[in-house]
Amino acid sequence: MRALIDRIGSTALHGVYDVAGAVMTGETAEDYFTHLGDRLAHVHFTDSDPGGSHLAWGEGIIDLPKMIAFLRAQGYAGSLTVELTNWKYNVEPFAPMRQCVDAIRQAISAP
User: Fold this and answer.
1) What pLDDT was estimated at residue 93?
2) Is the pTM of this model over 0.85?
3) How do 79-81 and 40-44 pair as beta strands?
4) Do 47 and 60 contact (CB within 8 A), yes or no?
5) How far is CA 17 from each of CA 79, 90, 91, 92, 106, rounded to the nearest angstrom?
6) Taking a C-beta distance cutoff of 8 angstroms, is the pair 62, 47 a contact?
7) What is the layout of strands, in order, in the sheet containing 40-44?
8) Backbone phi, psi, residue 44, to 5°
9) What angle do CA 42, 8, 35 make, to 5 degrees?
10) What is the pLDDT of residues 96-111, one digit of tens each?
């Protein structure tokens, strides 16, 4: 991804770290920060199962407090978006979205 960003040469182009997608491909948050550095501007911030499903926080395997601590340690100041693309949320998306907001608020308020 970094090679493509560098080849295009636009300061407007940045990379996205999709937490669930990375789980599915065996990549880590460290991989994204190592390779993209200051060219990482967005995180699809969602929990995941080992298969890469996009889940509400608390329903998968990602350690949210650890992820928040890692992002803080990197000095990450880009955007985070909750990405609930799992079919089970299609009929009633509000409860899992509230679950995500509550979990994220609790995690970012911890020291």
Assistant:
1) 95
2) yes
3) parallel
4) yes
5) 11, 23, 27, 26, 22
6) yes
7) 15-18, 40-44, 79-81
8) -80, 100
9) 50
10) 999 999 999 999 998 7
